[in-house]
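Dear Dr. L.,

I hope this message finds you well. Following up on our conversation about the binding site, I have prepared a predicted three-dimensional model of the protein together with fe (ii) ion. For your records, I am including the exact sequence and ligand specification that went into the calculation, followed by the structure tokens. Please feel free to forward this to your student if that is useful.
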Amino acid sequence: MRLWIVIVVVVPPRGVCCGIRYNLELSKLTICNHGVEMGTRGPQYQNRLRDALRPDTERFPADGERTAERLLRSVRRLTLDPETEVTWDSPWEEGKWFLPAELVSLYGTPLWEDMSPAQRMELSRHEAACHAWTAILGEVILIPMLARHTARLDPASKHVEFALTEMEDECRHSKMFARLIGKLGSPTQPLGFLARCRRRLLSTMAGPLEMFTLALTFEVVLDQFERAAMADESVQPVIRDVFRVHVIEEARHTSYAREELARRMVTCAWWRRHALSLLSGRCADLLVSQLAPPHIYSEVGLDARVAAAQASTSAHRHATLRSCGHQLTAFLTEIGIIGPLGAWLWRRARLL
Ligand SMILES: [Fe+2]
Ligand SMILES: [Fe+2]
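The resulting structure of the complex is given below.
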């Protein structure tokens, strides 16, 4: 017996669903790429229309074009090439840190007091490599999300031009951090099977809200570490150069993510807000554990279990992380992403 499968494709007429931006005749509605002027038929009717327009405002955010245009002007003014900005061939300077001592995970613990100066310096070298590896991981997760986001937008928009520029920046940064890890000569742990699955799932499923939340979580916390290190003369000049390049170019990315997120959260459904709260808290937790994984303590001759326990209960580490996360957590709380459950996860990560 033959089995016939009939696939019916229903194509909604232009003006329905996502295409509502085209001249709806309802209620003297005038729609353009930069805004919506509503008619005067009462608040309920207007709310319904606003809901109907939601997919469209997502495709063409009201001020997204202006933000992207401003940031693109900054790209033309200031884009740094790590090839020439970083003195890659200069040797490591004797007695200089790879991260400021105060940012090393064990600083201020009883174990730190017992460590020799060489061990402390060596630990800062491993943590600098972990920082670079964390930055790469954040960027390689973000790039496919940005690519998918771009595919849904108008290719002629400034918004797309900036998203493509951001991908270009992130590729350059990841290459720079990979080169730094090679120069540091510190072993890094590749992602395990479960982490790779999580990354793949996140890259595939995430929408713009998840993407911008994730981008901010990674970029702002790392940025605070980098700002402190680049201003510290006791740190190796090569590390300071790398961080300077990253801090300058990331300022555009965080500005873009911050503005997009704040704009999109206005129309975010309650259940998605809770999902974002959990996602951001979980990412914050993973980010912090990635900055000082237990295997680096074994590399400097310490008991990994004891060292990890002391780092996780260190008051100094807690204060450092909290001050690095302060700006971000205040912003995410203000726009409603950090709720009660998310706050618990952020506290667990010691960023709140
Ligand atoms: Fe970056
Ligand atoms: Fe970035």
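In brief: The longest strand covers residues 30-32.

With kind regards,
A. P.
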